Amino acid sequence: MILGIGVDVLHVPRLQRLVRLRPERFLTRILTKVEQSEFRQQLREMELTTGQAEAAVTSPPPVKTVVPKAIESDASIRYLATRWALKEATYKALYPRHKLVWQDVTVYKKDGKPGLLIHGQENLGIASSHASVSHDGEYVFAQVVLESR
């Protein structure tokens, strides 16, 4: 049985403004620890590819050391926009029965499709989740369907 359906539309320039204002705060507020680690790895790979990397880094740098220029790359913004939209759609699928926070949802990729790991999903009555995201120009569209047992 369907527990909830959530949809979100994100205007990417709005997200870019938020990231530009306070990148460290944005990343630690919106992304889970797993997503932050994945994002930092992506940034390091981009820096190595573009020749902007410093000496070899053996451990992930703190978010504060992330180069704003790298954060504003198309790939980085796409990563952040996808997570923002999917988390918003997940929140809307459960609202008002349950109120999630950003850190309650981890977005991952499986077989080329987005997947959701929702903290405490068993207690929320969620048996399965289905997520879809589309990018078109300056917009990201996300839809989440949550099923109960």
UniProtKB/TrEMBL annotation:
Q: Does the keyword Lipid metabolism apply?
A: yes
Q: Which InterPro entries match?
A: 4-PPantetheinyl_Trfase_dom, 4-PPantetheinyl_Trfase_dom_sf, ACPS, Ppantetheine-prot_Trfase_dom
Domain of life according to the entry: Eukaryota
Name the Gene Ontology biological process terms. fatty acid biosynthetic process
- List residues of the 4'-phosphopantetheinyl transferase domain: 4-142
Q: Keywords for this entry?
A: Fatty acid biosynthesis, Fatty acid metabolism, Lipid biosynthesis, Lipid metabolism, Magnesium, Metal-binding, Transferase
Entry's Gene Ontology molecular function annotations: holo-[acyl-carrier-protein] synthase activity; magnesium ion binding
Q: Which residues form a coiled coil?
A: none
Q: Which HAMAP family match?
A: AcpS
What is the protein's name according to its record?
Answer: 4'-phosphopantetheinyl transferase domain-containing protein
Q: Which organism is it from?
A: Actinomortierella ambigua
